[in-house]
């Protein structure tokens, strides 16, 4: 995805995510920013969105999509949570998923201060999520 100056305007999804990261001012913003960078490196065609804006969360939730939601990025007091919409259908040979393991659809990665994420394994997971989303069933199948 090529990014023009207008895409980083304050009210664009990318601009809103930039503002959220800057407002955190701690390791959580740095970590979510790093994970965002890895997502965009894994697939440059990923589109950033901000969803679920409400009075209790005016900055909303960063969402990365390609042919549907890949993952969301939420920030809590003690951790950053990346939830993969179809995570249960993804192979996770390095064991990045460590939360929401009981569901049939989603899987999440909770990252606490000081945690180190294997960047290449994470990008492989993102690419696998993209591949799952872009698969098209043949008509009539």
Structural class: alpha+beta
Taken from the alpha-carbon principal axes, the silhouette is globular
CATH class: Alpha Beta
Bin the strand percentage.
Answer: 15-25%
Tally the beta strands.
5
Q: Give the terminus-to-terminus CA distance.
A: 32 Å
Give helix % range.
25-40%
The ordered H/E elements are HHEEEEEH
CATH topology: Aspartate Aminotransferase, domain 1
Structural features:
single chain; 141 residues; alpha+beta; Aspartate Aminotransferase, domain 1; five-stranded antiparallel beta sheet; 3 helices; 5 strands; globular; disordered N terminus
Give an overview in words:
With 141 residues, this protein is α+β, with helices and mostly antiparallel strands. It has a single domain, classed as Aspartate Aminotransferase, domain 1 (Alpha-Beta Complex). Helices cover 31% and strands 21% of the residues. Strands 1-2-3-4-5 form a 5-stranded antiparallel sheet. Strand 3 and strand 4 form a beta hairpin. Helix 1 packs antiparallel against helix 2 and helix 2 crosses helix 3. The protein starts with 12 loop residues before the first helix and ends in a 7-residue tail after the last helix.
